[in-house]
Design goal:
The structure holds 2 protein chains of 2 kinds. By secondary structure, chain A is an alpha/beta fold. Chain A folds into 2 domains: 14-96 and 219-253 and 293-375, 3-Layer(aba) Sandwich (D-Maltodextrin-Binding Protein, domain 2); 98-215, Periplasmic binding protein-like II (D-Maltodextrin-Binding Protein, domain 2, 3-Layer(aba) Sandwich), CATH 3.40.190.10. Helix content of chain A is 36%, strand content 17%. Chain A is built from 16 helices and 12 strands. In chain A, α1 (25-32) crosses α12 and α8 (175-183) runs parallel beside α9. Chain A is globular and about 60 Å long. By secondary structure, chain B is an alpha/beta fold. Chain B has 2 domains: 3-135, D-Maltodextrin-Binding Protein, domain 2; 141-206, Winged helix-like DNA-binding domain superfamily/Winged helix DNA-binding domain (Arc Repressor Mutant, subunit A), CATH 1.10.10. Helices cover 59% and strands 11% of the residues of chain B. In chain B, α4 runs parallel beside α5 and α5 crosses α7 (183-196). Chain B is elongated, with a radius of gyration of 27 Å. At the A-B interface, α3 and β7 of A face α3, β4 and α4 of B. Chain A: Keywords: Cell inner membrane, Cell membrane, Membrane, Transport. Chain A: One of its GO terms (cellular component) is endomembrane system. Chain A: It is found in: Endomembrane system. Chain A: InterPro entries: NrtA/CpmA_ABC-bd_dom.
Chain lengths: 387, 208
């Protein structure tokens, strides 16, 4: 799939990149279950070995767009780590999907502290206790700095007054190698996207300690990012692409389709045989604690308030703080484009672009274009003295 | 190459040993010091700390690029992606060429742009040369295999139809033209039909 020489593409083909994670399902299933074809689209999917490669290929125009991490959609516009490339994010592809998994030995130490590990901030306090009494630093495995996972991990640590450096060492490991790193103890705690947490649990290597959802409820995990010049040259195609993806996301939320999703994702072109165990023994492909979802409760709506939130967290973690200008967020996240596509599918969408992030512990209702729209909760973990 | 290139330390990370050798030789002959040429990125973080390269050239498809980039976000002295921010058009062209060729480059301690660019260009040229070499090899291999298939199919048709080599070749060529297929494709189909089951029929029997 990463062969750029196969020559079957025409100028009509939309070239999209993805990373082999469970939340690549919207792109993969839109291709395999025929949603792209039904919209008359010719799409080629290219699996990318790293977020850096994905970004660079979008940056030079080898890809028209890709599945992107929420923070990456901002970083690529701001020119963090690579030449700036104007990219728009007209929809969110998935919500939640990350977790923090503790190596078995560490998990046992955490349990013995007596803290209630089901509460994420208590679990972080348990970690603080273990760090204080440990001679060796605890190693935290992360996959990429400009990611939701990384920002969530730091907020989770901050909830117990922890930060990397003081007895905690950050180690970066690519997702497919995280399992090995945890197995051999080069990482004690892994913060990674699915399916890797589920697989580490399945193989008995570790235990999910907290989920991304417990840190930032229903955060925009992966977004559709397309080059702005491509979007401007192909407005009809972009709408058709978004229609196919929204319809696919709705289809993905239906548990009846999960078996087929597993059968497709296990293909070596996509996630490969590593995910085979997740389909066995009636286990769900999507871990119940992670609450990964694709459509329900306005999941696809690209809230500008969430772009602001991501930017504020990136800045708090010294990402892009050297840039003087605030990026023009409403030229990146594009709820206006999403609303038009929702309209054409007879779906409702919120009329406002902003909501009070972190203020909703329960699902709530906002005014929609047609009527009222349900929105998922958005509670945020309380961080000690950092805001 | 100007003398100011000596003392510039380049770390090369490439799991294609032949290509790595090509790049290494080219850089060395330009006066660069190639340190810790590595076939895989395992232990890369430690290697960067130990070897203190000025530039890291890494295969774009190495999954460990994210590791390198995260190092730079977390640690001031870690490698940073080479970014030619200058307005110069040839710089954006260099980046595009590098991505197309599959080269990515990182600088460690702020080596000036005019010193980095020739290194990237050397790597890009060798990556491209390697790519075209590999294509040529593949083409040669395919051509050889096709010729073998055609020879084998011809023999099968001769035996089947009890005809001369020339006649067998002509009937195959006619079949290929009638079907608008390549001769090698027809040959492969004939091998499938005739090769397994002797006496299964003449080439014409394959027509729908």
């Amino acid at each position: 799939m990463t062969d750029w020489m196969h020559g079957t593409e025409s100028s009509e083909t939309i070239r999209l990149g993805f990373i082999p994670l469970l939340d690549a399902a919207p792109l993969i299933m839109a291709q395999e279950a025929g949603f792209f074809a039904e919209e008359g689209l010719d799409v080629s999917l290219y699996r990318q070995p790293s977020w850096s490669s994905l970004r660079d290929r979008v940056g030079v125009g080898m890809l028209d767009g890709a599945q992107m991490l929420g923070p990456m959609a901002l970083a690529i516009n701001m020119g963090l780590g690579a030449p700036p490339c104007p990219v728009i994010s007209p929809m969110v592809l998935s919500r939640n999907g990350n977790a923090i998994t503790a190596r078995r030995a560490l998990y046992e130490q955490l349990t013995s502290t007596g803290f209630d590990l089901s509460e994420p901030s208590e679990a972080a306090c348990a970690l603080a206790r273990v760090v204080a009494s440990s001679d060796e630093p605890i190693r935290l495995g992360i996959v990429y700095a400009w990611s939701t996972h990384y920002l969530q991990l730091l907020d989770w640590l901050a909830s117990a007054g922890l930060s990397p450096g003081s007895g905690l060492e950050l180690v970066t490991v690519p997702p497919p190698e995280m399992m090995t790193a945890l197995a051999y103890g080069s990482v004690d705690l892994a913060c990674v996207g699915e399916p890797w947490n589920s697989l580490m649990e399945y193989h008995g290597l570790g235990q999910i300690l907290a989920t991304g959802c417990q840190v930032w409820q229903n955060a925009p995990e992966k977004v559709l990012g397309v080059r702005r010049d491509w979007a401007q040259a192909n407005p009809e195609k972009l709408r058709a692409l978004m229609r196919a993806l929204v319809r696919c996301c709705r289809w993905l939320d239906d548990p009846d389709n999960r078996e087929l999703v597993h059968r497709i994702l296990v293909h070596p072109h996509y996630l490969g045989s590593a995910i085979e165990p997740l389909g066995d023994q009636g286990e769900s492909l999507f871990h119940p604690r992670v609450q990964q979802h694709f459509f329900r409760q306005s999941a696809n709506f690209p809230w500008l308030s969430q772009a602001q939130w991501l930017l504020s967290r990136m800045r708090l973690r010294n990402q892009g703080e050297q840039l003087l200008e605030t990026p023009d967020l409403d030229s990146i996240f594009r709820p206006d484009l999403y609303r038009k596509v929702a309209e054409s599918l007879s779906l409702d969408a919120p009329i406002m672009d902003y909501k009070d992030e972190g203020e909703h512990r329960q699902p709530f209702v906002v005014e929609g274009v047609r009527g009222q729209v349900e929105v998922a909760p958005d509670a945020l973990i309380a961080t000690a003295g950092q805001d | 190459m100007s003398a100011d290139q000596s003392g510039v330390r380049v770390m090369l990370v490439d799991n294609e040993p032949e290509r790595a050798t090509m790049v290494c030789d080219a850089l060395t002959s330009e006066g660069y010091e190639v340190v810790g040429q590595r076939s895989s990125t395992r232990g890369l973080v430690a290697a960067v700390a130990q070897e203190e390269p000025d530039v890291v050239i890494i295969d774009m498809d190495s999954p460990d690029r994210d590791t390198l980039e995260s190092m730079s976000a977390l640690n001031e002295h870690a490698p940073r992606p080479v970014v030619f921010f200058a307005s110069d058009d040839s710089d954006s062209h260099t980046i595009q060429q590098a991505v197309n060729a599959g080269v990515s480059a990182y600088i460690v301690d702020g080596l000036e742009q005019h010193r980095v660019k020739p290194i990237v260009e050397v790597a890009v040229a060798r990556f491209e040369a390697f790519q075209s070499l590999r294509h040529q090899l593949e083409e040669t291999r395919t051509a050889l295999e096709e010729r073998k298939d055609i020879e084998r199919a011809k023999g099968l048709v001769m035996k089947q139809n009890n005809c001369s080599e020339d006649e067998a070749f002509h009937s195959m060529r006619k079949l290929a033209m009638d079907r608008n297929q390549k001769l090698s494709e027809v040959a492969r189909q004939l091998i499938e039909v005739l090769g397994g089951a002797e006496g299964a029929g003449s080439p014409e029997a394959m027509d729908d």
